[in-house]
Structures are given as C-alpha cells and as structure tokens.
Amino acid sequence: MKKIHPQGSPQSLHGFQTLPVWGLVLGLIGLLHWGIVDLIDPYYFSILMYAGVNIILAVSLNLVNGFTGQFSMGHAGFMSVGGYISAFLTTTLANQNPTLLSSPLLGTGIFLATLIAGGLGASAVGYLVGLPSLRLKGDYLAIVTLGFGEIIRVGVLNIDAIGGARGMPNIPPLTTFGLLYSFVLLTVFMIWRLINSAHGRAFLSVREDEIAAEAMGVNTTQAKVRAFVLGAFFAGVAGGLFAHYLRYLNPQTFDFNRSFEIIIMVVLGGMGSITGSVVAALFLTILREALRPLQEITRLDFRMVIYSLLLIVLMLTKPNGLFGTKEFTAFLPAWLRRKLTGKEREA
C-alpha cells in the first residue's frame, strides 16, 4: 500500500527530513565564501553576484506568475522600493556613525535588519498595489501592474532625500557572496515549502481554475494578494542586496525593461518551476555579459532582440518553458529522488 504525504505531492521537497540537504548546500555556500571566492576573477565574480540577485527576482516572480497564474509586470518597482529603503537606512547610519557598520557582527546584523525593512516596505507597496488590481484578470492585470511599476519609478525620481534623478551614490558595500547566496537558498526553500503547503495548494487552485477554486471555498482574491505580497517582499530583499553590491542606485535601473527581463527568466525556465527560474536566471545573466563585446563593436544593444528570438524559438519548441512545471528532482534516479524529497518507501 502506498503512503500519501499529508502535504504536497510525493515528489515535492518535503518536511524536516530534507533539512540535512539544505544544511549541506548552506555549508557549501560558506565553503565557497571563505575558500574560493577570493580566487575568482573580479569580472566573473560580478556576474555570479548579479546572477544571485536575478535568481531571487525570478523565483519570487514565479510565485505570482507561475504558481498563482497571474501576470505581474511591475516586479522591478518592488525591487526599487526595497533597494532604496535599505540603502537609505544604511547610508544614513554610516554618515552618522562611520564605525557602526565596520564591525563584522554588528554591521551584518544591521544590514540584515535593513534588508528586512526594505522587504517589508516592498510588501506593503505590493499590498496597496495588489488589493485593487488583483481583482482584474489577464491583460488588464498586466497593464495595471506595469503602470504601478512606472508610478513607483517616477515617484523615486522626485524624492530628493534618496537622490532623485541623480541617483543614490556611496552606498556601503555590505553584500557578500555568502550573504547573497544564503538569501538565494532561503528564497528557494521558503517558496518551495510554501508551494507544498495548504496555502500553496490554494495558489495552484487559483492558477488551474479560479471559478472552481471559489466554488470549493478558496478566497481567490486573498490568495492572489498573499502571493503578490510575498513576491514583493523577496523582490525588495533582492533590491537591497543589489544596492549594497553595486553601491549606486538610479531610477532608470528599475524601468519596465528590467521587469521584462525578470518575466523572460520566468517564462524561459517554465512558469511553475523553481528549478527553471534558477537555471534561466543563470543562463540569461551569463548571456547578457557574453553579448557585451558585440554591443561594444556595433554600438547597439542586441539583448532584447536576442531575448525575443529566444522566446519565439522556445514557444515553438517548448511552449511550457525549459522545465514546464517540473523540478530537477523529477530527472533524478528513484533512490536519489527519495532521499532528496523525503518520499516514504512503499509499504
């Protein structure tokens, strides 16, 4: 007789049984941070850091667009809110007390607090945006979220306290490899566990058939707003990590093209696959830098053209994206999948 898990599917990352796997990955991140990162060329290291930020953005947007079945086009706006809040707090503290952030333990603690503050600020804006707009569907929702993203960007342009159109320079360099990829791991873990919970099943039911979900008692508006707020929170955290690595923020960095890039990562990897979002974010980050020599020669930016061609080819060959709704565990041998997913043996 086959035992059924009370939460999620048998192939989902499941319960406390898999915590050693996550701990092993976290230990690997720590090993890379302390032993290997210093040996990497700074250029390739910067690509690795930007890839980490993009993974957080893509996975968090997939929660809304992929798992809940909505179509948000304003994710870069939430990234900017979190980035500016976190950068403003750390810059203000550094100006008032330059030694405050220099302490490894205290400085890291303060930075984590500002990242959470930025994420909460982004989620608050996400709630204000999502509550009225998520009652809409399809193209109307996409247009409204795109408009709100532009409103956020224009609002930032007119706030002198954070630099306005000049941007915000001299942000403390607090983002490290270990910290960034710890947040990448935390984002993947939390969203994966969320999807395999009762709340996650509500998200999936909204995606599959909203009318049927309402008939079964699911508050579809509440589920969509909850997903929207959580996605905005992680986008805000990604914005804070990005700000404290780049050390400079400009409103033009968070225009609608940035939102389109994140959407492309989600669609390319597969709407409903966390693994797909991770792989697509890595691939497109590397592709962007690989095309830079061509851009320098031609003086033209071919990124969006090539992204569009990639999407056209992908839609013709794999309409559901590279991974569809599958995770990497679906491609592993049965014994290894059982170890990683916590699937019980058949009795």
Explained architecture:
The protein has one domain (16-341). It is 69% helix and 0% strand. It has helices spanning 19-35, 42-67, 75-96, 104-133, 138-157, 177-195, 198-208, 210-215, 220-246, 256-269, 274-290, 292-298, 303-317, 334-341. Residues 1-13 have low confidence and may be disordered.
Sequence-ordered SSE layout with sheet pairings:
Blueprint: H1 19-35, H2 42-67, H3 75-96, H4 104-133, H5 138-157, H6 177-195, H7 198-208, H8 210-215, H9 220-246, H10 256-269, H11 274-290, H12 292-298, H13 303-317, H14 334-341
Summarize it.
The chain has 347 residues and is mainly alpha-helical. It contains 14 helices and no strands.
Keywords:
347 residues, mainly alpha, globular, disordered N terminus
- The SS-based structural class is mainly alpha
- Helix content class: 55-70%
Order of secondary-structure elements: HHHHHHHHHHHHHH
Question: How confident is the prediction overall: mean pLDDT?
Answer: 85
Question: Could you tell me the number of beta strands?
Answer: 0
Radius of gyration: 20 Å
Low-confidence stretches: 1-13
Cα(first) to Cα(last) distance is 5 Å
How would you sum up the major sheet? none
The best one-word shape is: globular
**Helical segment count:** 14
Strand content: under 5%
Number of domains: 1
